[in-house]
Each structure stands twice: as structure tokens, then as C-alpha cells.
């Protein structure tokens, strides 16, 4: 494969697409598929045939607005339809070239216009299982540019200049990580893509893998070239069957096109990728535990150092990055690090994909530039809290993150600002809560999650989270005391400082952040024996025994 | 033949200047210099896992606490092994252990010879503030010589490591997640029906009364894990 051949493929796809008068994109991500968008697509194809419309009916990945699925995007007029059923196919096809179907039309300008799509630029526009679709949208240009025109050092320099930071949660500078692995001595190196997305309410990685898997593979290949690796693994959860299927198809096509395998594009660079399925353990998202899992061992973290960059998979230097991090790599190489560094804030560059869930009107996937305020994301793009309820808090960073209350909604989203608020960026889950949520109960939910997902290796996390859960359960049931609360805070300190891996170190965050901003709710539960949100089942305190004097009288 | 140069590091532990070879762990160097760092999952002669968190030490300039059993020395490190912060954490970890399962010293075979008990005494643990979990756990007495009492297990995985690394049988492993973790033999078979070689190493290295010799019930049951470094030494010289 050469650049000319790549351009030829792109050209032929564009020419083939130009033959159609209309393009009808049907979202077939997990969300829309669960509402039978596959049947919808078949119905649309049948209808187009019957009505003699020259339309390309295309299966695509996630369009973002999962709450309004199944979604259909009709080009060239760019009309988005929501809640489309197979029954609407006839109407929809008939409207092509004419007036849009008003009752199905989704008019959410505010939702889409404020987003900046870098990672999701192809999501909803290409067929994820057709490599040629990806190539037609500049796919693999970055890899070929790196292989033919750039040295590995130049690639790393470009990434460093872009200021890209790890999107898995920690925010470690990607360029620095790459250069560490590149400098590590070893005859064999590995690249691992961490797709073990386990945070409750997070589905960014899943959507990227389902909608645009080639981009992740291209990112991995570029990384492998930069650090000198020749073998890659994508570690993805078995709970994401669609992502696994599309990834498998994508790897097969990439090999067929000669974009993976030996001597890629007639260069000395060889690289191939294998898929490894995770069995659903949250802790396997931690890099050392993930490596243990790939090695076939019990998925437990190891103390670092040594870091995987020095001694990782099977003791070899290993580069491990998140799905979204790799997905950012091709556009950076195509458009340059400077372009990327121009988006975002001083220390947090680029965009971030968030999965907004919970009590929010527009549940779904959004991509915004770093530095946008939480208010803009939640009230603007997210459409605010539905049913007239009042916004109470937003949980970012999953079980490792914290709750941010309404008074801090105007902070810009960046790695630093969220940590300052006692939360963290995490992988990008955002759970919005309204006044019907009890914050003590929310903290209890996340601690329960950490307790059941703890691997059990180190004592603070194994026994500490279980003790925290017991204490929180007491408080929720109304039998807690102020001593329990003190003990809880004390435990938080020890677990945070002494746990072996990130799971334990961040497990107390939900408790600490709710205590910081919603201490009155804890006090209400403990002292006044009532749950302000009416969630916890606290039995009304027994009426005070009548005074003995009254009895005598 | 010229003598190979040894990379020497100098560092400070608890205000004392010490020297060490590159690659040595903080724990090794501290013990060579008679500085005691409490440990539980560590045992001389076994690979380290850094799981019990008792040996955490403070390093100047580093916010994170590092486990002394796996962290290696570096030039100019300033290490504190017994600050108030560390003592508090160690006590809390011990409390967590005592509250986790059923540790009742007065009826335990290892009373007086138990590392957990000794450590609690050393650290001045007088009471447990946390609610006891009192789990209902089984006792595996299916083996003809030994017994495994899960109630006293602290999941240090010394038995798992000695069986895999030294004996080479690997009959022990950990099952389950988090608070439900349990030591199992083979694929969760009774110990007596497992591929156990009956060497008894696991019993000797067990820090508590979780693994004990049936013939010692009702009598003193000291354990002798000191054989391990010697065994390793003899194997290396062969």
C-alpha cells in the first residue's frame, strides 16, 4: 500500500457515493440497535427500492444522542430524525428531496453546535465495518505519513507538542509515556489499548470502538512505530460484543489491505494486533492488573515501580494507553500538534468525550473542547434536568471521582480543575443527579461498587471498602452515629493513602466529596433520622415515651 | 579477572546514613542496619507482592507512600519508617484485619506465636474501633495432617507463594474478589483430595493459626519459616 493507492481507494469510494442522490445514515450503535435500528435499516432499504429513490442506506456508529434513538441522518440536507421506527420508513424515504418529516425531526442545534468533534469526527458518518469508508475520510493517511515521512522521534515530538494527555483518567502526558517506552531497552516491545471501560454510566470507549474502530487501530500502529513495538493487544470487555465484532472485522480488513502485518507499506515496520477479552473485572482497567490478565494470570495489580514502560507484558517494555487516547493520535499527525494544542486550555489540550447519563434530558455521547464549563455541558448540550426537577450534583470520573454541586458548575472542565474540586476527569462518565437523589445513598452505591470490584489483594481496599459500606449502610438506615461518621472519615484517609492501586486510592472520593459539599445530608440522616430526598428507608423514630409524671397523673 | 564494580547507593533511613547495593529493597537495607519495619505478607525467601501495606514508608519529596518490601533504594533517598502518619495507618490496617474475620486469640493454636498478634502488640493496638464482621467461614480439615481455618486467614498469600515458588506444586490459590476472597486448594477441592505433596511448607510460613498441624492442637504451635532462605541458598549452590 502506498499513499497513491490509498488516495485511489478514497477516490473510488467518493465516486461511488456521489452516484447516489441521497445518503441515509442509520445509527447502529448499541443504544439504537437495542431499539431495532437494524430492522429500520432493512425497511428503509426496501422502501427506497420500492419508491425508486436512488439512496445509499448506510449503517453507521453512534451519533451521540442516545436518548432519542434510533437516529437517522439524511444527507445532503443534514436532517436528523429521532425515535424512528420501521413503520416510519415509507414516510421518511418519501420525504427525501422534499419537505422533511416534521414530527420526527430532531432539532437540537444547541446540542450539536457547541461540540467539537475530533475523536468522534467519523462517528455517525461511516460504516464502521467498511475500511474503505474510513480511508475515504482520510483514514490511514496519518500512519503512512508517519511511516514514510517521519522518524519515530518526530512522531513522539508531534504528540508531545500537541500536549495530548492520557484519556483513561490519570491524564499522564502521552508524549512523555511514549518517549519513556521508546527509550526502554528491550528486543521486543508491546502496545496495549485499554478498552476495559468499567465505570458505571460510562460508554465512551465502547462507542468509539463501535463507531470508528479503524481509528484506534491506526493510532496503535502509529504508537507502535514511535516506540518500536511490533505487537499490539486490544483489551476490551466481553460485555461489549458489538465492539468486539466490529473490531474483529476491522482487524481482518486492515490486514487484507496490508495496513497491518509484516512490512507495512513496504517499510521495515511490522505490526499486528490481537484482541483480548476481559471478563468484566473493574480492576483490570488498572494497567498492571490488565497486563496480568493478558498474561493469563489473576487480574491483580502489582506495585509500581517498575512501571509497564520498563517492565510490562511478559516483562517487556509496554506502552499502554486508553482507547480515546489512541483515537486522538491520527488527527494529530494529520493536522499537526500545533492544531491540537490550539484546542482546550493551558494544561489540558484537545477535546474530551463525555458520556452524560442520569437525570438529564439529552442522554448520550458528547465531545467538547477542554475548558468548557460544566454548566454549558449539562444545561446547554445536555439540555438540563428534565421534569422540572432541580439540579443537585454531577458525578464525574465514575466511582473514583466525586460529586460536584450546583454552586461549582461554572468551573471549566480540565484535569486540574476537577481534581481541585475533589473529583477527577476519569474516563469521562458524567452522572447527573437531581433533587430526588440522596447523596449519602449515592456515596453508598459507589462504595458498594468499589467493594465488590476490589480484587482483594491489599488490606485497606479489601477490608476498608467493606467497612465503609457497613458504616454507610448504618447511616442510610438511620442507625448511624456521629462516631460512625468520624470513623468513616478516618478510614477514608487510610484507604486513600495506603492502597496498592488506583482503585483503592480513589475509592473514598465519592464519600469525601459528598461529605465536603453535602455534609448536612449526612447530619440529617444521623441526627434527625430523616432522608431529605426521601430515598433512604428510615423508619420514623419511635414516639418519645410519655413522661412518667403524665402516666401517674 | 577484574572485580566487577558494585553500584553503591547512599541514603538516609530514619536519620541514619546507610549504604546499599543498587537493586536492594528499602526493607533489606533497613534490616541490615537494625531498623525494624513491620511486615506481614513479606517473608524472607519468597517473592514479594506488596499487599499487606504494613511496610509502607515515607520518602522525602514523594507524596505517595511506598512499600519497603518492593521499592528499591535510590541515591540520596531520605526515608522515614515510623512517623505518626505511618503508625496511624498501620494501626488502622491491623484493626481492619482483626475486624475482617474471626481472630480470637484465646482459642487459637497460634496464641503466643502469631505474627498478627505480635504485630498488634508492637504497634500498641489496644482495641478495635470498627464493627466486627463476624463472617461464617468454613474449616477444611479434610487433609490427614493439616487443617485450614479460613476464620484466621489474613490472605497474605504466603502459602500460595511458597507452594508455587518453592515446592513447585501450586495447589493454593485465591478465589473470588474483594472481601469474598478465599484461599482454595486446586480448583476449590477439599485440601485432602488435592494434589498436595504434604510437605507442610505452607503451614510453617503461615503467620497466623489459619494453617496448622493437626497433631499440635491443644499444645504450643510455634512455626519455623526461617528454613526458607537456607533452602534457597542450598538450591542456588547446587
Strand order of the largest sheet of chain A: 10-9-13-11-12
CATH superfamily of the largest domain in chain A: NADH-ubiquinone oxidoreductase 51kDa subunit
Number of helices of chain B: 6
Q: Which pair of chains has the greatest number of interface residues, and how are they split between the two chains?
A: A-B, 32 and 34 residues
What is the tally of beta strands of chain A? Answer: 13
Classify the oligomer: heterodimer
What's the tally of helices of chain A?
Answer: 24
Q: What percent of residues of chain B adopt helix (DSSP H or I)?
A: 10-25%
Q: Quote the average pLDDT of chain A.
A: 90
Q: Write the element-wise H/E pattern of chain B from the N-terminal end onward.
A: EEHEEEHHEEHEEHEH
Report on this structure:
The complex is a heterodimer of chains A (553) and B (238). By secondary structure, chain A is of the alpha/beta class. Chain A has helices spanning 3-18, 30-33, 37-51, 89-95, 109-113, 131-136, 141-149, 152-162, 174-183, 204-211, 213-227, 241-256, 287-294, 323-335, 337-341, 374-381, 415-420, 439-453, 459-476, 482-498, 502-506, 509-517, 519-526, 548-552; strands spanning 22-27, 55-60, 72-75, 79-81, 190-195, 231-237, 272-278, 318-322, 351-358, 364-369, 391-396, 402-405, 429-434. In chain A, the strands form 3 sheets. A 5-stranded mixed sheet of chain A has the order 10-9-13-11-12. The radius of gyration of chain A is 25 Å and the shape is globular. Chain B is an alpha+beta fold. In chain B, strand 3 and strand 4 form a beta hairpin. Classes of the chains: A alpha/beta (553), B alpha+beta (238). Chain A binds chain B through residues 281, 298, 302-303, 305, 451-467, 470-471, 487, 490-491, 494, 497-500, and chain B through 49-53, 56, 65, 67, 70-72, 85, 88-89, 92-93, 96-97, 99-100, 129-131, 133, 154-155, 173-174, 176-181.
